[in-house]
Amino acid sequence: MDITIRKRVPPDLLRFTFYFLPREARMDQTPAYGMTLDDWIEWMEEHDQPKFRAKQVVEWLFQKRVTSFDEMTNLSHDLREQLKEKFTIGLLPSVRLTGSKDTTRKFLFRLHDGRLIETVKIPANANFDGERSGRITLCVSSQVGCAYDCKFCASGLAGFTRNLSAGEIVGQVMTAEYETGDSIRNIVFMGMGEPLANLTNLTKALTILNADWGMNLGARHMTVSTSGLAPQIEKLAKIPMQIRLAISLHGATDKVREQIMPVNKKYNINRLFDALQVWLRHKKQMITLEYILIEGINDSLDQAKILAMRANSLHAKVNLIPYNTVEGLPWKRPDIPAQDAFLNVLSKANITATIRREKGHDIDAACGQLRLQEEDLPSLEASVSDSPA
Ligand code: SAH
């Protein structure tokens, strides 16, 4: 494989970090992980190749997991050369892998244009909505940065740079499996970015992740989380895949919500809930309403009562998330009795509600903490530029 382990920082009790050299890749090449079987069929036809070659290529990529076209030995030499010219097998080697005490792992991936994104592997005993689970969950990013400017979130602090391609989304899952040896069977789009603002690439990535010729991940094990882009929710509702939806609600009334989530000015709670009714007409799974508890902002028991009514109208479950502090932002979480009092209001109203006790705090890998720490950049540049040629 093309990844060279360059420097190994000795592990301490809480943290260990590996540095890898990024692989050379050309900007004019297409990431192979972003191609559907139909895309491959079309490509083969355009290049006077029989259709079955498409199936062979996806088998090498997703079942046999080769990392170069040279290994695709049932293809002719000529065809392999053409593929090599046009595509990258976009394994994005992680430039850094950080581990926390609770076995959460945070990957920092460098993309082919030099941008950096983060992906988090969450241990099997705590899935994203706090239920016990035997499955490892991967929290993936959908954009570099974010344009939605939620006041409490770290991801938007540096603004929006660009959408991730379908290949870069699928690549996060492939590479996390490749580097850890784990089988990832649960995916949440709760990393950096607003997935529904990147709907075309998101849909393509979901197709590849779900396909039996692709990663063969059950649609019910993929959760898209959104800040509430109502028209896009309605569009996503219509794709023929039983994926799950989580809504970052964080305020039970427009007055509270729009203070912390500017997107609420564009799509207010009524508009959002109309879209969620459309979702429910197409999908079988319950919707999850995510609600960060921020002290003095949205944690009053009045908000809890209205939230209970709203959850009830959708038969949704509620996932309470005590706010994770973000350096440079003034917010903090309410104390445990206040969190429990809020939960109690929901439970009394017969709403299925959990409090997500976050993993990965010690490595800034908890919800809403994914961002590029600016100080990462110079040290990474240095680690690349002083490498042997
Ligand atoms: N843009 C999408 C997905 C990314 S954020 C969305 O808004 O849903 C994933 C979740 O983390 C969202 O619910 C988000 O509101 C939450 N989050 C952001 N900052 C947080 C913080 N500091 N503490 C806890 N959760 C946070």
Strand and helix layout:
Blueprint: E1 5-8, E2 16-20, E3 30-31, H1 37-46, H2 52-63, H3 77-86, E4 87-88, E5 94-99, E6 105-110, E7 116-122, E8 137-139, E9 143-145, E10 160-163, H4 166-180, E11 186-189, H5 199-210, E12 222-226, H6 230-237, E13 244-248, H7 254-260, H8 263-266, H9 269-282, E14 288-293, H10 301-314, E15 317-322, H11 336-348, E16 353-355, H12 376-385
Parallel strand pairs: 3-4, 8-11, 11-12, 12-13, 13-14, 14-15, 15-16
Antiparallel strand pairs: 1-2, 2-5, 5-6, 6-7, 7-8, 9-10
Helix pairs in contact: 1-2, 4-5, 6-9, 10-11
The chain binds S-adenosyl-L-homocysteine.
Mean pLDDT, all residues? 85
* Widest beta sheet: strand line-up: 1-2-5-6-7-8-11-12-13-14-15-16
- By secondary-structure content and strand pairing, the structural class works out as alpha/beta
Q: Give the class-level CATH name of the largest domain.
A: Alpha Beta
- Approximately how much beta-strand content do the residues carry? 15-25%
